[in-house]
Amino acid sequence: MTTKNDIIKYLESINVKHDDTILIHTSLKAIGELDGGADMLIDAFCEYLHQGLFLIPTHTWDKVVPNNPFYDVATTVPCIGTLPCVAINRKDGVRSLHPTHSVVAFGERAREYIKGEEMAASPAPIGGCWSRLYEEHAKILLIGVGHDKNTYFHAVDEILDIPNRLSENGFNITIRDESGNTYTTPPFHTHFTKGISCCCSEFYPNYKRPLEELNAVTYSKLGEATVYCCDAVKCADVIRHMWDKTDHDLCISEEDIPQSYYMDFKER
């Protein structure tokens, strides 16, 4: 059984600082039994990051769609597992107004960090919560899940202006905040990649070997779960370097990316 003390010791062991920005994608089932359940896990991270920022994704892309263009920050239920559903009901967190790719933020800077998300026109726009993980020098912990769940890579796509990633036709979304105020987004463009029947994130695992060989991602264990610890800056810089080398889309099919695309990478 994994305890709060186990989680705190784990964060120490992977050199997380008390003022870091940490975002987690989590399979609670992969971790195994938690002494105190999902709330204990959140408590442990918040206690450890008492000077920092802790983020939990609470996506609603399956519900906020053209035939239901409405997001209520208080009631629209996340579609990505148990932990997000627990997080949205916490009194110590604040949920962003992004209609499809919201987060719950914890920490003194939480409300400031999520400001302005109601104006998002895409899932991970430049200047939004997801792209600013780069400026934050954040760590993304994939706990029991892989890169196909790594939403930050969508932000990298938008930062690099990768073609064929967003739908051509946008739609306006009505958002209701915690006080009952309503907002209307600019025309919102969802994820869409021509030529494949799934989301391009299904092929983000193509980046796995380059990222680990260049130490942009390291591995550890929390409970029974394998954890990918992703350095937001290093990951984005390596991916940028590979796209500068290629003449085709790296994420529309399974691909073993050649070492020639990345082994000459030099950190800034």
UniProtKB/TrEMBL annotation:
Catalytic activity line of the entry: a 2-deoxystreptamine antibiotic + acetyl-CoA = an N(3)-acetyl-2-deoxystreptamine antibiotic + CoA + H(+)
Domain of life: Bacteria
Keyword Disulfide bond annotated: no
Top enzyme category: transferase
Gene Ontology molecular function: aminoglycoside 3-N-acetyltransferase activity
InterPro entries with a match to the protein in the record: Amioglycoside_AcTrfase, Antibiotic_NAT-like
Gene Ontology biological process terms in this record: response to antibiotic
Pfam families: Antibiotic_NAT (PF02522)
EC number(s) stated in the UniProt entry for this protein: 2.3.1.-
Keywords: Acyltransferase, Antibiotic resistance, Transferase
Family, as annotated: Belongs to the antibiotic N-acetyltransferase family.
Protein name in the entry: Aminoglycoside N(3)-acetyltransferase
Source organism of the structure: Anaeromicropila herbilytica
